[in-house]
Specification:
The complex is a heterodimer of chains A (507) and B (317). Chain A is mainly α. Chain A has one domain. Chain A contains 22 helices and two strands. Chain A has helices at 2-12, 15-33, 39-46, 55-80, 89-138, 142-153, 155-158, 164-178, 204-222, 224-234, 247-269, 275-289, 295-298, 302-318, 320-326, 332-343, 352-355, 357-386, 393-411, 415-433, 438-461, 473-499; strands at 181-182, 189-190. In chain A, helix 5 crosses helix 10 (224-234), helix 5 (89-138) packs across helix 11 and helix 5 (89-138) runs parallel beside helix 15. The longest helix of chain A is centred in the N-terminal third of the chain and has 50 residues, at 89-138. Chain A starts with a helix and ends in an 8-residue tail after the last helix. Chain B is of the alpha/beta class and 317 residues long. In chain B, 42% of the residues lie in helices and 19% in strands. The relative contact order of chain B is 0.17. Chain B is built from eleven helices and eleven strands. Classes of the chains: A mainly alpha (507), B alpha/beta (317). At the A-B interface, helix 16 and helix 21 of A face helix 2, helix 3, strand 7, helix 8 and helix 10 of B.
């Protein structure tokens, strides 16, 4: 195994391949950092280019893009409150307040380090135990998935902001939006209004861009004075300790990073969950573990940034576990990569290790190299991006809006994607104004689809024998956690109600 | 503007020259042509289409672009396509079920087989009824016996058609089947390898997992080279098949000369080494059939699917 990997390193680390990995990570980091564009866009656009290069370089290039963009999306989340990808939404929650407090550099660096650690550890896990983990992941069937997804939904409460009712409304609206399209079992159309564009449901990227980026841009454009004040704040406090990650920060974040990496790997190897679920879960758990959870969104929290980013990046290599071992894509990016693999003459699945053993070792070596290159590019790239905040806001905002349109057009099937983006931009604008959490909306939207399918499958699988759920210990554990989570939420709410002075009844 | 015009002329002239160098043909294609694919980039049909487009470009001497218009199981693409002028600039490449089957399943689909002219068939899908490798039976008869002895046998259906075909079988055999819905081939593989179901409809993906599946019966009307021992559903006297080759089509009213020229070029492109390679990788054998055969196939299959859907009692939505 190790010898093969060493040979793979020899094959992978030619100047030619390194150049492509470097380019991939750099392009990925750039598109990730630009709101509106993301890894989906970048990889899809890059696939035709890979027709003309060698298989190993081509695949390494695409993997570089996906790793780079996953880390890059933290940049705009922290600097502009505009996540480059849905999975970086929690990063914005805890990171933007830090930037407003003049600690943008610190937050950016921690985001990068957490990303690289999550990515590197997850890559090692992939290399050492892809087959074992994949077999284990197969044991996680629909019944377990329903429990895990229900557990993720309890974090809606934690991420709701001030009002749990509003958070629930937003989350349920997200689930409602996820039901749009052709229903899977009988192909009944739901909320399609006769439009074929809606048959496959609302496209994730335009919805996310509208809710996350466009609505924020509308708010920022609408309030120029506040914006200029904030731009001043973002330029930094001038204190040197606010620009670096101190030992104290590492101590605060270590647990979050370890937990986040673990959650990211777990979520990644299970097909059907996705990077957003990973970062939401990790953020929610870090928040729950904190002494003062409310401070996360109020003052910002370095461990929140670390939690979201480590999980977000750990998902990417882990999602290649089911792809490489079983030919089943564990994430959007893995699904796009299947096409690229096939074009290069490699069919993802169990045969890949037999037919293309050398290539696989080369891919592994390239993935490890990409982790290190990511650290390098991220470190220097950040300095460049951090200068964005020195530019005039009108320049930045108009560019971002343009990029949002571009990304939605490319990923949402043309003009249709633009309409969806504008629609959800307007919904997001009012949601922000009236303090409905766009994050809980996204959880509902991202999780809803898989939850429905897994629930229907479970009902079928347990048909007539509900007691058979006792044969599914993993599901039972997650159901127990879900119940405990709900109890904790209710308790905290009650505690809060009693400690806060009751408002005078007749005022 | 003048510059652009003269540039345009120059390009046309150049194209004309290169064509003039070839043996005498009709003037089509006088510029780049477009292959329309009704699925997202990256899937099996798309991958195959792109390889085919590249070969076709070499054969015709003009670039062949690929555009993807996903939505509604090719319905978005087919509706857009039928309104295009019949000038040969755009042709459709996709699973024939979009035309032969889907109009039976959806009431307001907006098109029918009569909206298009058919050029040729290129490749075949290899659907089959499969079971996990450790299933307590080895063949179709064993599956039927097992299902009779164990009512509520779990069957993964990745599409309404996958369900309909099993419903027809169940009706004839008097089986009680528990249909578990799933999404796409990957979802089906997960359910089977995860030992959640006892049988499943596979679009052909199972042949990539040697030793993990048992192929009980094939759903094509002829036996499949990969599984010579698996009988067809027709041999098993169900009178059912799910033949779904990829078809090349134009909007109605196209000049037959263009159809003939594309069909000839397709025949060469389909026989290329690159196509043979990719077919082997994604297990979709090339099986070129000419314009006459394509027309006959579309008419015949549309009718037979119509009967199947009616027999199953499925109500178009």
């Amino acid at each position: 195994m190790m010898e093969e990997l060493a040979a793979g390193f020899g094959a992978a680390l030619t100047i030619y391949n390194i150049a492509f990995i470097f380019m991939g990570v750099a392009i990925g980091y750039l598109v990730g950092a630009l709101p509106g564009l993301g890894k989906g866009t970048a990889t899809a656009v890059a696939i035709p280019i890979t027709f003309y290069i060698e298989p190993l370089a081509a695949i390494a290039f695409l993997i570089g893009i996906s790793k780079g963009s996953t880390a890059g999306s933290a940049v705009s989340a922290i600097l502009m409150n505009t996540p480059g990808e849905p999975s970086s939404a929690p990063t914005a929650l805890a990171g933007y307040p830090l930037a407003r407090a003049g600690k943008a550099q610190k937050a950016l660096k921690m985001g990068l380090y957490a990303s690289v650690i999550g990515d590197f550890v997850s890559t090692c896990v992939l290399i050492l135990s892809a087959q074992t983990l994949a077999d284990y992941a197969l044991g996680i069937g629909p019944i377990e998935l329903v429990a895990i997804l229900a557990f993720s939904l309890t974090f809606i409460a934690a991420l709701s902001g001030n009002s749990m009712v509003k958070g629930l409304i937003a989350g349920l609206f997200g689930i409602l939006c996820s039901t749009v399209g052709t229903e899977i079992e009988t192909s009944t159309e739901r909320f399609t209004f006769g439009s074929f564009d809606l048959y496959e449901g609302l496209p994730l990227i335009p919805v996310a861009i509208g809710m996350l980026a466009l609505s924020e841009m509308m708010i920022q454009i609408g309030d120029r004075r506040r914006l200029e004040e904030q731009t001043d704040l973002l330029r930094g406090s001038g204190k040197p300790e606010d620009a670096v990650v101190t030992l104290a920060d590492w101590k605060r974040s270590a647990k979050s990073i370890i937990r986040g990496t673990g959650i990211g790997i777990f979520v990644g190897i299970l097909p059907g969950l996705g990077a957003s679920t990973g970062s939401f879960l990790s953020y929610g758990m870090a928040r729950r573990a904190a002494e003062d959870p409310e401070a996360f969104e109020r003052d910002g929290a370095i461990e929140g940034v670390a939690a979201a980013e480590s999980a977000d990046n750990a998902v990417v290599p882990a999602s290649f576990v089911p792809l490489f071992a079983l030919g089943i894509p564990g994430s959007v990016i893995a699904a796009i990569l299947i096409g690229a693999f096939i074009i290069q003459g490699v069919t993802p699945g169990p045969l890949m290790f037999i037919e293309q053993a050398e290539l696989m070792q080369g891919i592994y070596a390239s993935m490890l190299a990409a982790s290190l290159i990511l650290l390098f590019i991220g470190y220097f790239g950040q300095n460049m991006f951090a200068r964005i905040i020195k530019l005039s806001p009108s320049l930045v905002l108009s560019t971002v809006v343009f990029l949002c349109c571009l990304g939605s057009y490319l990923q949402g099937g043309g003009m249709f994607g633009l309409y969806i983006m504008v629609l959800f931009g307007v919904i997001g604008f009012f949601a922000r104004k009236y303090e409905f959490s766009f994050v809980t909306f996204l959880i509902g939207f991202v999780v809803g689809d898989g939850f429905e399918l897994a629930l229907r499958q479970s009902i079928g699988l347990l048909k007539g024998t509900p007691e058979a759920i006792l044969d599914h210990p993993v599901a039972l554990v997650f159901w127990a956690l879900t119940v405990l989570g709900v109890i904790a939420i209710l308790r905290r709410k009650k505690a809060k109600a009693t400690t806060e002075p009751a408002p005078a009844a007749a005022e | 503007m003048h510059f652009l015009k003269s540039l345009g002329l120059a390009v046309t002239a150049a194209a004309g020259l290169s064509l003039a160098a070839m043996p005498a043909h009709a003037e089509w294609p006088d510029g780049p042509i477009t292959m329309l694919i009704g699925y997202k980039a990256g899937g099996g049909t798309d991958t195959k289409g792109r390889v085919l487009a590249k070969q076709l470009g070499q054969e015709l001497g003009v670039p062949v672009k690929v555009i993807n218009k996903p939505g509604g199981g090719q319905a978005a693409a087919l509706n857009w396509f039928k309104e295009l002028p019949a000038d040969g600039k755009v042709f459709f490449f996709g699973a024939s079920t979009g035309i032969t089957l889907n109009p039976h399943l959806k009431k307001n689909i907006g098109y029918s087989k009569d909206d298009y002219e058919y050029c040729c068939l290129v490749t075949e899908f290899q659907p089959a009824m499969v079971a996990p490798a450790d299933a307590p039976f080895d063949d179709w008869a064993g599956f039927i016996a097992h299902s009779k002895a164990n009512p509520g046998v779990k069957y993964a259906a990745l599409s309404p058609f996958a369900r309909i075909i099993m419903e027809l079988i169940a009706k004839k055999e008097g089986l009680d089947v528990n249909y578990i819905p799933t999404k796409g081939g990957a979802g089906m593989v997960q359910l089977v390898l995860g030992k959640q179901v006892m049988a499943a409809y596979s679009g052909g993906i199972h042949s990539r997992y040697p030793g993990k599946f048992k192929t009980l019966a094939v759903i094509t009307s002829a036996r499949q080279a990969h599984f010579p021992n698996a009988p067809t559903l027709e041999e098993l006297n169900y009178g059912l098949n799910g033949d779904a080759p990829t078809v090349v089509a134009f909007p109605k009213g196209i000049d037959p000369a263009i159809v003939a020229k594309l069909a000839a070029a397709m025949k060469v492109a389909a026989a290329s080494k690159d196509m043979a390679n990719i077919s082997k990788k994604i297990m979709m054998p090339v099986n070129y059939a000419d314009t006459e055969a394509a027309k006959k196939f579309i008419d015949g299959t549309t009718a037979s699917f119509g009967k199947m859907i009616k027999d199953s009692g499925y109500v178009a939505k």
